[in-house]
Amino acid sequence: MNPFGTLRSVLLGLLLLLFPSLLLAGVPPEAPTWSAPEVGAVTCGLEGQQPYSHPQLCLLRLGSQEVLQLSFDLLGGQGAPLLSYRLRLCGPDWRASELYASEYLSGADSDQLPPPRPSVGTLQPYQHYELALGAQLFQSSGNYLLEILDESGERSLLRVPLSVYEQRLRLEGRVTPDAWGELRGGLQQVEVELRGLGLADRAALGEGLQLFVIQDSRWETAQRLGQPSDEGADGLSYRGSAAARFAAGSGYYRVEHRSDRGPFQGVGASYSSATGLLGLELHPRQPRGGQPFSYEEQRQGLQLLSTLRGESATEGDYHELSFRLQCPEPLAGQVYLEGEAFRYMPLERRELRYDTATRSYQLALPLKQGYQEYQFVYRPEGSDRLETATLMGDHYQTEHHYTVLAYARSHTDRTPHLWAVLQL
Description:
This protein is mainly β. The chain contains three helices and 29 strands.
């Protein structure tokens, strides 16, 4: 099999290079999502909400009773350090605001986390931390960077982007594969309608209105919309060439490992790892660029942590998962893992290395017991973009979830506000 995919994938790649508007209009924001190597099992979501069926952004509605719950593990047996956190308001591009914390928060911008709970009966010792942030803490909508610091308060352990929004505008949207005619098989198009913004309001905002579209809650996919295709008395339309276009991608593989004895899904064999953890060798995968679409693999990169023997928070153990992608020859670029389980890992920690003996890309990572979905993404040499066409394929039938965010800043505002959010 040709690991570089079919001619369609090559043509699509050339179009994305020659016409950057297929990827973005304007400069996309880059959220500084990051974690240190000793941090694992990061989850963030609304308190009391049922488990998600697809990845979600960390969102809070301004003035509501919603509470955002962050949890993570600090791996190792170094006692129970008291960690702290810091909150900072940021712009749509995730640059820190110059406002004082008292101008956007009703409380302190930093504090200690509640004391952790130690793991119980696990091969991998860890401390489990939880932090709850209520919407009442925030006085202003916008992007916020939540940073977790070590006991000294000087070293960053985890950075979590979250967004606090209002609903001052009405957003409507639809996803369609009908883009670029015969190449529609590799692209999805998101058309957006913005309502509730009259001519006078638009004049007051000037260039201060910014709309972004995000695929599957991953900030690295964010596209900023440019000039609207239509302007009416009550709002703006972004259709046709003004809409956001995304590579359609493909489905994810899955692995389930909720105990040391099974049952397992997606696992070929077990082994004793050098770290002392149970090692699970996942089924080796083949590049499938150019292969037909498979409805059996309609997944979006979800992670659900659970264990069969007790409470996942403190009794869920870690397994060393060994990922393998067969490839006859090394590619010119880099191969990475992508999915919710790897959201906070920097790229260098989730890069697979080529092994000439097995003619495959390989990586072993400790992941907490549960269910994870993953795929392989490729970064061509000299590019800063990750793409799926080469290793996974691009198919318009792939199910994705999109988030539209509308930021507004008038001439009198000192920082942009997040005026509306739409999830498709």
